TrEMBL record:
SMART domains (UniProt xref): HAMP, HATPase_c, HisKA
Source organism: Alkalimarinus sediminis
All copies of domain Histidine kinase, residue ranges: 245-457
Coiled coil: none
Protein name, UniProt field: histidine kinase
GO molecular function, one term: phosphorelay sensor kinase activity
CDD domains: HAMP, HATPase, HisKA
Domain spans labelled HAMP: 184-237
GO cellular component, one term: plasma membrane
Length: 462
């Protein structure tokens, strides 16, 4: 299945919804982890700075200015490469003590806290770091800055942010791949049901939807559809048997009635009586032809395949049928054009195929007005055998092309012409028996009936 079609499936859209929900939950979880770790470390840094400020304030209150300077120098000397930052300056920002060389000029003050960038200094390996500090003005305009290098904290924050981004990306990618795999598996099973359904709609009612034996929702759906198909087939068989039984039961008394009418026709003395009886005989013949056609269609549909297939020269059949109906076309002043490739061979029933060709030619002449044209074509290709009967008659509306293969169905504008609506039903049954295809198309004007049959070399023995 193509990827674009897969993305449009309901299973993939459902998987996409779950992917969004899962990604949202992962994002919330990672956000909480970020807040709980980076936020905790930032609070710890601020608390450390506050504690140092409290300690220095106590030292100042006890020992005075000199004592404060001594404490700052002692702390710097004890941990020269530490993270704590100190700078004690005079009124004109001249350094009195601390491990910073100068007062930060580009400091950003926010809620009493100062964030600034550490320039290259001894102990920081020549790298620029970010510092966070608080500033207090001591008595006499002296300024004290106490802070910490928060470079490691920022590194941890960036690491967590990178982990969140990668985690979200990997989560979305895995969810997308999982959604595609789940959708593909589901789509395959749905496509199997669709393929079988299309074949069943095409007329192969013997097919059934396979199951996997897992008892899941798809197996239950397949079982229900198969039971529904079984029931439909039973109902169709019942209707077909009723019509076939009616035709079979009425054919015998109708034949006797027809024979009696024919005997009465012979013994009738008056011209008027003979005309009426002859009309009744013609009507009886029409009814017998209808019943015979019904029974023949029933036998064809029940048989399913040709009993004794033989090599049939379709070129000869079509030429013979054209010659048979040529006189009828001339009576209606119609032209008959033929393009018949010689020696086109298929396997099948010669009589049935001749009846198919005859029915199509008869329909073309019947539904084409005087002065019209009928064309016959027969060719053989690598794919099979194709023959076509086209006319310039009344044609069939687009919405009724499939219905004309139903028994007794007749197009509205052709109901005034003689016929019983079984000709194309019989043609379709014969073509289906020979594993062929039939197609109706507009000839503009008229109708074009195309039939495809397998050629002899492509037919596998059954």
């Amino acid at each position: 299945m193509k990827l674009l079609g897969l993305l449009r499936t309901s299973s993939f859209q459902l998987a996409l919804v779950y992917m969004v929900l899962f990604a949202t939950s992962v994002f919330i979880l990672l956000g909480f982890i970020y807040w709980a770790t980076a936020g905790y470390m930032a609070d710890q840094t601020d608390e450390t700075i506050e504690a140092e400020i409290v300690g220095l304030a106590e030292q100042y209150s006890r020992q005075g200015l000199n004592g404060l300077i001594s404490v700052i120098r002692e702390r710097v000397a004890r941990d020269p490469n530490g993270k704590s930052l100190y700078l004690f300056t005079a009124r004109d920002y001249i350094k009195l003590a601390g491990n910073l060389d100068e007062w930060p000029e580009s400091a950003q003050v926010q809620d009493g806290w100062v964030n600034f960038q550490l320039d290259e200094q001894v102990g920081w390996e020549g790298k620029e770091h970010i510092a966070r500090a608080r500033i207090f003005v001591v008595q006499g305009g002296l300024r004290l800055l106490v802070g910490r290098d928060v470079h490691d904290l920022l590194v941890v924050k960036r690491l967590i942010e990178r982990a969140i981004n990668w985690g979200m990306g990997i989560t979305l990618a895995l969810a997308l791949v999982g959604g595609i795999m789940m959708s593909r598996s589901t789509a395959k099973r749905i496509e199997v049901i669709n393929q079988i359904s299309r074949k069943i709609m095409a007329g192969n009612l013997a097919l059934r939807i396979p199951g996997r034996g897992t008892g899941d929702d798809f197996d239950q759906l397949a079982e229900n559809l198969n039971q529904m198909l079984d029931r439909i087939v039973q109902l169709m068989d019942g209707i077909r048997h009723v019509s076939d039984n009616i035709a079979h039961d009425l054919r015998t008394p109708l034949t006797r009635l027809r024979n009696q009418l024919e005997s009465a026709l012979i013994s009738a003395e008056k011209e008027e009586d003979r005309d009426q009886i002859a009309t009744a005989v013609a009507e009886a013949d029409q009814l017998l032809a209808t019943f015979n056609a019904l029974l023949r269609i029933a036998r064809l549909e029940t048989g399913g395949k040709v009993a004794k297939p033989e090599a049939v020269n379709l070129s000869h059949l079509m030429s013979d049928a054209a010659e048979l109906y040529e006189a009828l076309a001339e009576d209606k002043n119609q032209t008959m054009e033929m393009n018949i490739q010689p020696d086109v061979i298929t396997l099948g029933d010669k009589d049935l195929l001749f009846q198919v060709i005859s029915n199509l030619i008869d329909n073309a002449i019947k539904y084409t007005p005087e002065g019209g044209s009928v064309s016959l074509q027969l060719i053989e290709t690598k794919e099979g055998v194709f023959f076509q009967v086209a006319d310039s008659g009344i044609g069939i509306p687009e919405g009724e092309k499939e219905k004309v293969f139903q028994r007794f169905y007749r197009v509205a504008k052709s109901r005034s012409l003689p016929g019983n609506g079984l000709g194309l039903s019989l043609v379709a049954a014969v073509i289906a028996m020979h594993k062929g295809e039939i197609n109706l198309a507009d000839a503009e004007p008229g109708l074009k009936v195309s039939v495809k049959l397998p050629k002899a070399s492509l037919i596998k023995p059954s």
